[in-house]
Amino acid sequence: MKIKTIIPLSILKKPLFIPIYLNIIPLIIGFYFFITKLKLKRIFIPILCIILVNIAVVIYQENYFSILKELQLILLLFFSSYLASQISHSSFISTAKIILFLSLLIFTLEYITLGPVLGYRDFFGIKLPRYVGPIGEFNFTGLLLSGISLIFLINRKYLFFIITLFVMLFPASRGAYLPVIVFLFVVFLHLLTQRNRKISKFILYSLFYTIVSYPFIVYFIHHSLGNIEIEKTLAIFSSMRYVYHVHYVDLGFHFPFGLGYFNGLEYLRNNITSIGGLFIFNYLPILEQHCMYIQIFSEFGFIGYIVFILFFRRILVIAYQQSFLLAAAWVSILTGFLFLNGLSEFILFFFIGYILNGRK
User: Fold this and answer.
1) Of 7, 23, 124, 287, which sits with the fewest C-beta atoms within 10 Å of its C-beta?
2) pLDDT 10s digits, 170-197
């Protein structure tokens, strides 16, 4: 059996709330690739270095559980490197199709056996039941489907794209549709400018820099504007995520090399009693960052954040060298991580591997 045939099973983390954790498969593949090839694509080296620095941080913080999460990230780098060099480009399409089939199967079984046990969601004015899907969480499953829908779209697999949009209704994650909407809007502007490469590239890179500047935007709004009404509006609009973002961004500036991967939540719990009073809201439970960029900024520090952003930008450059649509898809999927701590998510490294694979 070829290794690539088991990759789609990686999405089965907690289907039907059953913890089977097949998301370990990319780690096993990454480890196998490491011990058999003993090489990592050069583009990943800066990320590997900043992770090693972060391991020293978590050892200093005596948060040894985080070391396992750091090793997970390292193995995901090797997994993505495997995808970039060891399988055919068409295999990504096949994998995406199987992921779609598995997701639909799990949703169907969940609908038949469990029903919407976690309730309903107001989905743009429509009350929809929510199903957690193969990953076991609405938003992460939604983002996974959003990512493969973009792969279908840029490869002109329109029927599979439409089917994926339908399946995305099961988790009823509004944020999951954001990358698709952004992609279609960027492509519309591209066509509107009669495919002018300079204008289209400017739009694409402007959007990218806006996304990755989010921690700095939060810092500026909170510390420079100081307008409580604006901040209250942002908090409500972001489902209170902005409230957490302010505190985590401050930590990222305070600790240049970060708090250590997966150590941000624990640090905040131990060093702050109430996270809501600043914005005149009732007490809010102290939660994780709910934003990959804030997660990186607080746990790897602003120095580590710069390394990650340069890496993401390099992926954008490589994607743009292949096609405008691929670059637009990459920037669009990055918008989905504005609302999730997705640094170790399968779809992120799968998409990176897909882009690098096309460069062969």
Assistant:
1) 124
2) 999 888 999 999 999 999 999 998 778 8
Number of Cβ within 10 Å of residue 159's Cβ equals 9
DSSP 8-state assignment for residue 155: T
List, for residues 46-66, the tens digit of each pLDDT value. Answer: 999 999 999 999 888 777 888
CB count within 10 Å of CB 287 equals 15
E strand or H helix that includes residue 127: strand 126-129
Residue from 85, 49, 71, 44 nearest 312 by CA: 44
For residue 127, give the amino acid letter: K
Amino acid at 271: N
The terminus-to-terminus CA distance of the chain in angstroms comes to 24
How is residue 291 written in tokens?
């934003």
Q: What average pLDDT is seen over the chain?
A: 90
Type of residue found at 202: F
Most confident of 6-20, 54-68, 236-250: 6-20
How far is residue 321 from each of residues 148, 254, 318, 360, measured CA to CA in Å?
A: 21, 37, 5, 12
For residue 344, give the nearest of 92, 117, 24 by alpha carbon: 24
